[in-house]
Amino acid sequence: MSDQPPLSQATLAISAGRANSGNSLAPALWASSTWESGGLDDAHHRATAVRHGDFYSRYANPTVQQFEHAIAELEGAEAALAFGSGMGAIAATVLALCSTGSHIVAQRQLYAGTLAFLQGPCQRFGIDVTFVDVATPGAFSDAVIPGKTMLVIAESPSNPRLELADLDELGSIRGPLTLVDSTFSTPLGQQPLAYGVDLSLHSATKGIAGHNDATLGVIAGEQELIDEIWAYALLHGSTPSPFDALNALRGVRTLAVRTRQQNESARSLSVMLADHPACMAVHYPGLSEHPQHALASRQLLQYGTVLSFEVPDRAAAAKLMDSLAVARCATSLGGPETLICHPATSTHASLTLDEQAATGVTDGLVRVSVGLEETTDLLDDFEQALGEISG
Ligand SMILES: *Cc1c(COP(=O)(O)O)cnc(C)c1O
After folding, report:
1. How far is the CA of 269 from the centre of ligand 1 (A)?
2. Which of 87, 172, 249, 294 keeps 20 to 30 A from 31, CA to CA?
3. Which CATH number do you get for residue 315?
């Protein structure tokens, strides 16, 4: 065995997370919220053990655990912990690790829910946040206050302009814990923990589950740290549904082929858009003209399934979105359908105009999550819709 080459991620995704289902190839759904114990000693053991799978579902659930094992394996982590949503993962992790008087360094270009959480509840609880520009070298480490900064939060590639945090730089920060929201990459697109980052976080609602039929979050890291976060998370109560974990584990099985196809279409679409006169700018790390293309090539295993681009203004964005026949207008990403959204009026609508400008959300910016339709059908669809706004 020892001289065999290590298995690829695509193969691991097929075999990962198979405990707790006997010989069944499909994961078993453990819908139970509670388990019978054999006497008081046994009950005491289950109640006080860390993440015991047969006690009470908010503590741990065998179906959810299978999903967690699969993600841990794909992330190269000792352990993973699932939550009821990506925001559940973010909120519980921050509150598990920070207290009144703590300081957080976070990038400005964040998922709007994460930004709202850091600016609202965190400030209310006396947790200070310094926002930095993700693409400025050294910005994260320069903002760390020794002894006070507990957590450094990055999101890479970022929403909606696909800017990258330098994982090498994040991984070399000592003192605070570092966390990367790796949702846009999935565990197959980048491996933050291999760079020394402490926690890799996903909204598994997106590419991991991959079919718009689950709402779920997950973090991966060292066992001790994950157990510490679990001890708080079971009180926070953002508990994952076993049914959603089952759907997400099914998504994991096909993650490699789905992202391969979506990456291929995203690349072709970005090249077509970059050449189109109605399109003023394209944001996709796989394009050689992307300002961080060299960094992208170093740290991304796949350039990604999401891109954004700019048309002249909001009216042009509206007309474009109306004219598309294959792509659908909806938020979210990573599913089978190609989705297009206008961040200024949807995902980033809760931000002030100044905040939108600071995160690069312009009036003419649209974000595309590339789906699984035939590439040529997608290119034709965008070509004809762009024709409507250039005419
Ligand atoms: C969707 C998303 C989240 C939040 O996840 P939910 O599952 O919707 O709670 C967090 N970060 C990123 C980058 C996302 O795309």
Report:
1. 24
2. 87
3. 3.90.1150.10
